[in-house]
Specification:
It contains 19 helices and 16 strands. The protein is of the alpha/beta class. It has three domains: 211 residues, Substrate Binding Domain Of Dnak, Chain:A, Domain 2; 126 residues, Rossmann fold, CATH 3.40.50.2030; 173 residues, Rossmann fold. The radius of gyration is 23 Å and the shape is globular. The structure holds iron/sulfur cluster. Iron/sulfur cluster binds next to loops.
Length: 543
């Protein structure tokens, strides 16, 4: 195996014996194989679409298949083999769709294809076969391969967001067209560096559409987030802890547990759920337990109820809580019970059979500053900037992770001067969201925008501020201090680059898949810089 798609990759180079995340070589090989199968499926789906033929099953499967290869999602070889079988069936369906469209269009049978990708077949040993499809095979030129990887990881991240949006009934045909076209392009050896740079930027553009769709879906289903205090303690009674990102799954669980004496707690990136009127109306949505994903092995043994993951990030469950852990949707871990569909009876029954949580109220923290809430007080914010009460905004956001060096973000937030406002999103905020930052004339100094996909909200806030001050986003007194971990962060970064956002500080380390030449390109065109120390970076920004 060789994998370096995430920030915690071994020695900052690549995982080759076993993943730092726990991914076994067999699983790595099956994921590489699945990606190859998806490229083949998209080859036909793209050709068919050019002739006016499409198929929703193919579109959906590209999301599902890519999502399964995102870091900390699917560790189950058996499930991945099932996905590969479905991928093969759907690839054949895509081929038939293309051949029919070609015949209908041209009146003759389709000839051999103008592409050097062989038609993919599934052998009896998909693990051994997958070993031939590693990322090293993508392109011989390291810089081209680097940009192709950026594109592929961006597509994986976008697939995750697009699947959440799809669950809420929000899709976009242009986005599906791009998935197929660009997946096919990643296998096209006739394309060069410039082509892939363009495709990577286009990926950022389509991801903006996807994040807007997801935002629309959330708002239509649950209303705009409103500032809300969330308790970090526990209430006496049975409990279920929900980890991941999917609000619809949480809603269904809330409905099915109503009146059953079970409290529902959020974990990690589910924290923003408390701010949605359509979710906070459930009295048994009791609070948030624990912190970011990398602490689950330390925190989950302390949670006596049932636990369910609805998306990344799952880690190997300790024996002390494995038998009360469930997965749902794209997440899987071997030996952990998987819930298929929308019936959570097994989780509910398990929670009812487990000991109660103690009455232990904790600290309250404030969430719910999506763009609607922030722009609702835009006049106050603009006046505060004009009066000099607010000097600068810092967006400190992104993923949290286990590697040392992430204390930078805590230190940075602590050292932000008192006349500055911090905007935050995603699970990186757990590094500082329990600290008391106070307020500036009633405006909280820490505004929690929400999940990673709520980067869309952050963009809306930045654009509105730029309009109010009649300048570009890059001219605002706003600095972005971002932390990345996996592929969803990659695609958000592509969206920011597509929007022309410059001067981003990125850490805790730079991606192993970015070559020096590609990094130079990013520095020259976007002035991206790695983080240094909190003091040095603050000095460089504020002067
Ligand atoms: S996802 Fe990250 S930790 Fe896991 S194998 Fe790949 S690079 Fe290593």
């Amino acid at each position: 195996m060789f994998c370096h798609q995430c920030e915690q990759t071994a020695k900052g180079i690549g995982c080759s014996a076993v993943g730092v995340c726990g991914k076994q070589p067999e699983v790595a090989s099956l994921q590489d194989h699945l990606l190859y199968g998806l490229q083949s499926l998209s080859f036909y789906a793209h050709k068919a679409r050019k002739l006016g033929a499409s198929d929703k099953a193919l579109d959906h499967f590209v999301l599902e298949g890519l999502f399964a290869t995102v870091t900390n999602v699917d560790f189950d070889a058996e499930r991945l083999q099932g996905l590969l079988q479905r991928c093969y069936t759907l690839k054949e369906q895509a081929r038939a769709l293309y051949e029919k469209a070609f015949r209908d269009h041209n009146g003759i049978k389709a000839r051999s294809f103008d592409c050097d990708q062989p038609d993919w077949t599934l052998s009896a040993d998909p693990v051994e076969q997958g070993a031939r499809y590693g990322i090293e095979q993508l392109h011989a030129d390291p810089d081209v391969r680097s940009v192709v990887e950026i594109l592929l990881y961006g597509l994986k991240g976008m697939a995750a967001y697009a699947e959440h949006a799809e669950i809420l009934g929000k899709t976009n045909d242009e986005v599906f067209e791009f998935f197929h076209r660009s997946l096919h392009a990643t296998t096209d050896k006739t394309l060069g560096l410039g082509d892939f740079v363009e495709l990577a930027m286009e990926c950022g553009k389509h991801n903006l559409t996807v994040m807007a769709l997801l935002n629309e879906g959330h708002v239509e289903h649950y209303g705009h987030p409103v500032p809300t205090q969330v308790n970090l303690g526990t209430k006496a009674g049975k409990g279920i802890l929900v980890s991941g990102h999917d609000m619809k799954m949480l809603e269904e669980l809330l409905k099915q547990t109503e009146g059953k004496g079970i409290n529902i707690y959020t974990h990690g990136e589910m924290l923003p759920a408390h701010a949605y009127p359509g979710l906070k109306k459930y009295a048994h949505l009791a609070g948030n337990f624990g912190s970011a994903w990398q602490n689950q092995n330390k925190e989950f043994p302390e949670f006596p109820g049932a636990i369910i993951f609805n998306t990344n990030c799952i880690q190997k469950p300790a024996e002390s809580y494995k038998d009360r852990t469930f997965t749902w949707g794209c997440v899987a871990w071997p030996g952990v019970k998987h819930v298929t569909g929308w019936n959570f009876e097994a989780v509910i029954d398990k929670a009812l059979s487990l000991p109660e949580l103690p009455e232990a109220p904790g600290q309250d923290i404030l969430v719910g500053f999506g763009h609607n809430a922030v722009l609702g007080v835009a006049d106050k914010v603009i006046d505060a900037v004009k009066a000099g009460a607010v000097k600068h905004f810092f967006l400190i956001g992104g993923c949290d992770g286990a590697k040392p060096g992430r204390n930078y973000y805590t230190e940075f937030a602590e050292k932000v001067p008192e006349d500055c406002v911090i905007l935050t999103l995603a699970c990186g905020k757990y590094r500082f969201n329990k600290l008391d930052f106070g307020d500036i004339g009633g405006i909280p100094r820490l505004l929690d925008i929400g999940q990673c996909n709520d980067a869309y909200s952050a963009i809306q806030i930045a654009v509105a501020l730029a309009e109010a001050f009649e300048c570009g986003v890059n001219d605002l007194p706003l600095s972005m201090i971002l932390s990345w971990y996996e592929q969803k962060a990659v695609v958000i970064l592509l969206t920011l680059l597509f929007l022309g956002i410059r001067n981003i500080k990125l850490g805790p380390s730079l991606p192993a898949f970015v070559t020096p030449n590609v990094l130079n390109y990013l520095v020259e065109n976007f002035n991206i810089a790695p983080i240094t120390t909190a003091d040095e970076d603050l000095k460089a920004i504020l002067g």
